[in-house]
Amino acid sequence: MQDLVAGQKLKLSELTQDTRLSVAVELAVGSGAACQVFCFGLRADQQSAGPDYVIFGGNQESPCRALQLETPDHRMAGGFRLHLDKLPADIVRIAIAVARNPTAAVLVTGTLHLRNSEQVDLASFAFGAAGDGQAAVIVTEVYLKDVWRLAAVGQGFKEGTPALWRHFGITRPIGDFLGLSEAPAAVVKPATPVRLGKVILQKQGDQQKVSLKKDTGNNPICLNLNWAKPQTDGPLKLVQSLWSDKPDLDLGCFYLLRDGQKGVIQPLGGMFGAKHHSPYIYLDKDDRTGTDSDGENLFLFRPAEVLLVVVFAFIYEGAANFRDVGAVMRIRDQAENEIAINLDNPTPGRTFCAICSIQGTDDGIVLTKEERYFLGHRDADEHYGFGFTWVAGSK
Predict the structure, then answer these.
(1) Rounded-to-integer distance, Cα 128 and Cα 115, Å
(2) Shortest CA distance to 110 belongs to which of 35, 57, 166?
(3) Which residues touch 334 (CB under 8 Å, ≥6 apart)?
(4) Along the 395 residues of the chain, how does pLDDT read in single tens digits?
(5) Helices (H) and strands (E) in the chain, counts
(6) What is the number of other CB atoms lying within 10 angstroms of the CB of residue 76?
(7) Of 39, 237, 241, 296, which residue is 20 to 30 A from 391 by alpha carbon distance?
(8) Reduced to 3 states, what is the DSSP secondary structure of residue 356?
(9) What kind and span of H or E run contains 170?
(10) pTM of the predicted model over 0.85
(11) Read out DSSP for 43-69?
């Protein structure tokens, strides 16, 4: 495999004879949920061949089927399948780009991986740099000049999506489909915050925006986990009453702050966090049995400093999987609105659940239902890419 540097160009034949390629983009920790990956089909003048040849979540395949969105796996933010021999004659260049959601305060940095049709790595290119302020990046281009060639571009745009669109001659506001329009927001008179009541995030990927404006109050955001031993009627009730191992769930989180600090908060190891100093994330107790009426509570005292938090529950003992416990998470924001997440789609044999992720934006946070089940902490960490070092522990 060849590691490319910005500005490097080479013939594809130096890497492979395959005309079916796969491109995967891996973004830095905390950037994935705030960025969108695009594939542009371009003419000889390096302008877009039209909206049908801008491939992203809202347009997953070109008419000729030469450009296709590929479902990302593991830590990949997005990817595409490229069938060079299926491209129309007037499309001679393919550009891969990443654009940041304008409400997000993350760096557009990561690594692009080029693979052949058998998913063998051919080349990689690390793009973006801390502090460069890029809101959109043209990462790489595959282009026809006598033969197919590859260029590691790394061209950034501080203005973001609009500059990227202009660069490729796109007039249709495709970014609006994704909420990526970066037009200045209208100035409105602050209003008294409205209580939204209770919102239930039912499906994996469902999201809720939480404002952090001053008029929403100064209370911490509270994430409550509650559970109980299943109640059984009939002949099994006596057996259940003799069951001494009550489910012991641990609430915790992986966190990454805007200043780059990262860590883990959980009862295991006595890592309860802190209220009055960094990370300003605090776990109130370790409920060993689920009998405490208020369960366990994780508080975010300074949510504006959060870049990414992955909140998890871990079955320490007393149950084989999450089907054996009635676990529910309730999140109360600073305006006292409630967001509920039921853990109702467990994977058998998995005792670790990433319940939700919290992504920091410029004016708030975005809470996403994850409900992803893993074998343990290390497995979950590998999925989300925090890069912690794990050792065995006990209470």
Answers:
(1) 21
(2) 35
(3) 210, 212, 216, 217, 218, 219, 220, 221, 303
(4) 899 999 999 999 999 999 999 999 987 655 555 678 899 999 999 999 988 999 987 788 999 999 999 865 545 667 899 999 999 999 999 999 988 765 555 557 789 999 999 999 999 999 875 445 678 899 999 999 999 999 999 998 887 778 888 899 987 654 444 444 443 333 334 434 444 457 899 888 888 888 876 655 568 999 999 876 554 444 444 444 443 456 778 899 999 988 889 999 998 888 999 999 999 999 997 765 545 556 789 999 999 999 899 999 998 887 878 887 878 899 998 888 899 999 988 898 899 999 999 988 877 888 999 999 999 999 998 888 888 988 876 65
(5) 3, 24
(6) 19
(7) 296
(8) strand
(9) none
(10) no
(11) -TTS-B--GGGEEBTTB-B-TTSSEEE
Residue reference for tokens 């796109």: 170
386 token code pair: 């925090």
Instruction: Report the distance separating Cα 23 and Cα 1, nearest Å.
Output: 14
Identity of the residue numbered 208: Q
Q: What is the largest CA-CA distance in the chain?
A: 79
Tokens of 281: 């994330």
Token digits of residue 317: 């003992």
Q: Give the amino acid at 56.
A: F
Instruction: Map out the domains of the chain with their CATH numbers.
Output: 2-178 (2.60.60.30), 198-384 (2.60.60.30)
Of 65, 62, 55, residue with least CA distance to 25: 55
